[in-house]
Prior knowledge:
The chain has 10 helices and 13 strands. It is an alpha/beta fold. The chain has a single domain, classed as Spore Coat Polysaccharide Biosynthesis Protein SpsA, Chain A, CATH 3.90.550. The chain is globular, with a radius of gyration of 18 Å. The two termini are 36 Å apart.
Amino acid sequence: MIKKCLFPAAGYGTRFLPATKATPKEMLPILTKPLIQYGVEEAVEAGIMTMAIVSGRGKRAIEDHFDISYELEHQIKGGSKEVLLDEIRSLINQCTFSYTRQVEMKGLGHAILTGETLIGNEPFAVVLADDLCYHKEQGVLSQMREVFERYQCSVVAIEEIPLEHTHKYGVIAGKLVDGTDNTYRVTDMVEKPDPKDAPSNLVIIGRYILTPDIFDILRETKPGKGGEIQITDALLEQAKQGKVIAFKFKGKRFDCGGVDGFVEATNWFYEKIEE
Length: 275
Ligand code: UTP
């Protein structure tokens, strides 16, 4: 049973400067909702109600977003605009939010390890809010939860990409699990390889379900690519024991950590509401 979802949200978001100088990247809106709210909604849809957020300096807006704003709510009460707060209010009522800070940005693996204090000794989901995922029937985390229930080991969501983009992602090698066409037992993983060194064109996107032994592994993981503690390196240790499944999810993913993907997502969601 997965009860908690970790949101590493301490990164500087340098690709969005100057917008992210004083505003967290996770609070940039696609239409009227900030990226992190889409992530929380996806977790709730997967039956996860406890949100654990790893934040950092300058990220106060995230805490304020998942809280009541008395003056504002009093001001619009009874008016036509009150309905605009329905979705966020419902999340605040259903979920609990807890926070810890990553003091130094030492990489995604380090951010996840920082979240241990909020997670404890149980399997948990991880959402990178700048990867915005959509599927009209079943969200990606909900699909992954079913995979986890079946295999009882760490699960990473993967996508097939053009080989020339492998240098932006963690890339896996794996063997299809018998009887499936979308589920791989991972045999190797490489962080941001050049296309010529990439073991495949199957890349990890910002959705994980991790078993808690990952924390002990992360404690021992040395800085890797870019001098950062990489979650890919820690997952490779689990993969060597046959304990990582890669799952090719159904649905769309937008890389909202960069301007192109952000604009694409904005246009796509706008057309969707127009429909
Ligand atoms: P990214 O590399 O996409 O985010 O990290 P970033 O560093 O904020 O963005 P750029 O490259 O400078 O524009 C992936 C995720 O990991 C988190 C980020 O917040 C993001 O959600 N992260 C990364 C941390 O929480 N801590 C870190 O030390 C590094």
